[in-house]
Amino acid sequence: MKNLIQKLTETFSPSGNETVICEVIRKEIKAFVDDVSVDALGNLIARKGSKSKNGLKIMLAGHMDEIGLMATHIDGNGFIRFTGLGGIRLTGLTGSRVRFMDGTPGIIGAERLTDLTKAPSLEQCFIDVGASSRKDCPVKVGDVCAFDRPFLDLGNRMIAKSMDDRIGCAVMIEALRTMKASPHELYFVFTTQEEVGLRGATTSAFGVDPELALSVDVTTTGDTPKGSKMEVSLGNGPAVKVKDGGMLADPRIVNWMIRTAEKAKIPFQREVLEGGTTDARAMQVARAGIPSGCLSVPTRYVHSPSEMVDTADVQNSVKLLVALLSAPVGL
Ligand code: CO
Ligand code: ZN
Questions:
Q1: 85-89-91-94 Cα dihedral, nearest 10 degrees
Q2: Residue 156 located in a structural domain
Q3: Are residues 132 and 82 both part of a single domain?
Q4: What is the per-residue pLDDT across 95-145, written as a single tens digit (0 to 9) for each?
C-alpha cells in the first residue's frame, strides 16, 4: 500500500486541476469496479455491486484535489504573486518548493520583514522560478502550482504533501481491492474541489443520490507540543467523526461505525474537530438530506507541505471501511 500512497501523494493536482490524479486513480481501481465515469465537475465515480435485500445505496467520498497556489500577478522582474487555492498556512511558507502543472519548479520567497517573529502575510510572499523578467517567466496569471515534496517512509509513520486527502483516496482504493462481498450498491467517489468549498461532493452527491454517505478524509491531532486541545492522537486508530466545524455527524452513523469497530476489534477514537470540515457536510445536506458520517485518518501538520500519518492507523482505516461495507447497516 505504501507504493500506492507514494504514487498518489507525488502527483500534482490542486483544486480545479484534478485530471492528472483522476487518471492515476482510474487505473488503480478499474479492475475492481463494475462501472467508472467522470461527471461535469471532474468527480471520478466508480460503482461496485448492486443492492441486495438488506443493502443500501452508499456513497463514499475522498477528495482528489490538494491545496495549491494560483498566480495572480507577475512583476517586471519575473516574480510571481499568488493567492491560495484552499487553506494555505502562512507559517513555513517561505522556503517551500512548488511545482506548476507544466512542471515548472519554483520556491517561495518573502519581502524583507521588519518583525522577524511574525510569519509574512500572503501579500508579502512571492514565487521565484528563476526568471529575470516578466517576458522570460514561464508562468502566466491563473497558472496553478502545488507544494513539491517527495514521499517519506519512516516505517511506522509516513510523511508527504497532500496526505490531505490522497491518504483517504488510498484507503478507499485499498478497501476496493480487499473487500470480498457487500450487500450494498457502492459508489466510490473521488471528488474534486473539496479544498475550495466541497464543490465536487455537492454535485456528485446530487447525481448519485445515495441513502447513506461517508467521507474518508484526514483530521488533525492534539498530540504535538502545545497543540490544539483535541482528543485525537496518531497511532490510536482511525477516528470516528462526531462533529467538526461544518457538520454534526448522524448519531446513527456514529453508533454504526463504533459498533462495527468494536465487533471487528479495530482500535478507533472519537473525533470532535473544532475547525474545518469534509465532503460529508455537502453530502449530508444534499437533496432532501442524507444520513452522513466521516471516517478520519489522524494527520499531523495538515495543510503544510509535510503531513504525517501513522502506518497502523492507515491499515486500520482500511479494515474499518471494509468491515462497514461488508455487512448490512441496520441503523
Ligand atoms: Co484539506
Ligand atoms: Zn481533506
A1: -10
A2: no
A3: yes
A4: 999 999 999 999 999 999 888 888 899 999 999 999 999 999 999 999 999
Residue 63 Cα, ligand 2 centroid: separation in angstroms?
Answer: 7
Residue 307 is a catalytic residue: no
In a domain, 275, yes or no: yes
Ion ligand 1 nearby residues (CB, 5 A): 164
Ligand 2 geometric centre to CA of 172 (Å) = 14
pLDDT at 288: 97
| 121 shares a domain with 169 | no
- Return left, alpha or beta for 263; rule: phi > 0 is left, psi -120 to 50 is alpha, else beta: alpha
- Domain range for residue 80? 68-147
The reply to whether 196 and 248 lie within a common domain is yes
For ligand 2, the distance from its centroid to the CA atom of residue 143, given in whole angstroms, is 22
221: confidence class by pLDDT, cuts 50, 70, 90: very high
Rounded distance between C-alpha atoms, residue 11 and residue 18, angstroms:
10
**Torsion sign over Cα 283, 285, 287, 291:** positive
pLDDT digits (tens, 9 = 90+) for 254-300: 999 999 999 999 999 999 999 999 999 999 999 999 999 999 999 99
pLDDT value, residue 60: 98
Tell me, yes or no, if the pTM score tops 0.90: yes
- Asked if residue 51 belongs to a domain, the reply is yes
Residues 78 and 213 both lie in one domain: no
- For residues 208 and 147, what is the distance between their CA atoms, to the nearest angstrom? 32
Domain boundary, last residue among 104, 122, 147: 147
Q: Would you state the pLDDT for residue 279?
A: 98
Q: What is the CATH number of the domain that holds 93?
A: 2.40.30.40
**155, part of any domain:** no
Among 28, 174, 185, 194, the active-site one is: 194
Number of domains in the chain: 2
Give the ranges where 90-198 is alpha helix by DSSP (H).
163-178
